[in-house]
Design a protein that fits this description.
globular; mainly alpha
Length: 252
């Protein structure tokens, strides 16, 4: 066994263990499950799409549910991935032990993996609960939706990296994400009520609308995914090299 294999095995195990801890920590938070998992499902049921589309088809489900998937991806990226990255950056444990390059790299990679996994869990749960209203389950449709969803999530996670890079505190970040979410929801509502004549303008100011177009195949998935992946990895690289964590004892 080569020396690189000897070093990679413990590193992979650490990556797995930290990611698992972060996932369990997130799932123990009731508010995360409520607003990210169940609230979109309840809204979907309340709006009763079956009455709008009496003939359930795969295309009808994709068209109607696209906004919900985009919203879930944004919610996980903002209020999960980026929000908790800012919060953990301020924690005493992080500031005491994660300040070397290798530790920061391991922590950020675990953080990114854990929330990527969580985002797919939320999207899968939404599909399982809402799909029966507009047809039968389809493996092809499911994997297409997950690919679109993950592309959307990667794009929003890049925005999350950018916000996490700002010199802001946990409380300020909460206000900022709430405001950003409200603005996206309002612009989505305006886009739905004003018609297609303002669609291009809405797309420029609302990434939620842009993400919705990926699900509806108005933006090709094969073109959107490499762009979103590149942006997300760029955000990861820049954050890894500029992640400001000061050891506690350095203040004395």
């Amino acid at each position: 066994m080569t020396s690189s294999n000897l070093h990679s095995t413990p590193r992979a195990k650490k990556l797995y263990n930290i990611s698992r801890i972060l996932i369990m920590e997130h799932l123990r938070e009731p508010s995360s499950l409520l607003w990210t998992a169940f609230a979109p499902c309840m809204l979907f049921f309340i709006m009763n799409p079956s009455s709008l589309n009496p003939e359930p088809t795969a295309q009808a489900y994709l068209s109607y549910s696209a906004w919900f998937y985009a919203y879930i991806s944004a919610n996980v990226a903002f209020f999960g991935f980026s929000f908790y990255l800012i919060g953990r950056r301020e924690s005493g444990f992080i500031r005491s032990f994660i300040y070397q390059k290798e530790s920061i790299r391991l922590f950020l990679a675990s953080h990114m993996i854990s929330y990527s996994f969580l985002s797919l869990i939320y999207a899968s749960l939404f599909y399982l609960l809402t799909k029966p209203m507009l047809g039968n389950y389809s493996a092809h449709e499911y994997f297409y939706l997950m690919a679109c969803f993950f592309t959307s999530y990667l794009g929003f996670s890049f925005m999350g990296f950018a916000i996490a890079a700002l010199p802001i505190k946990f409380g300020t970040a909460s206000t900022l994400f709430s405001l950003l979410s409200f603005l996206m929801l309002m612009s989505s509502y305006l886009g739905a009520t004003t018609g297609k004549e303002h669609e291009e303008l809405i797309a420029l100011v609302n990434p939620l609308h842009l993400s919705t177009r990926i699900f509806r195949d108005e933006i090709p998935l094969l073109g959107a995914f490499p762009v979103a992946l590149t942006l997300s990895l760029t955000g990861f690289y820049l954050t890894m090299n500029h992640f400001k964590v000061q050891p506690v004892w350095s203040r004395y």
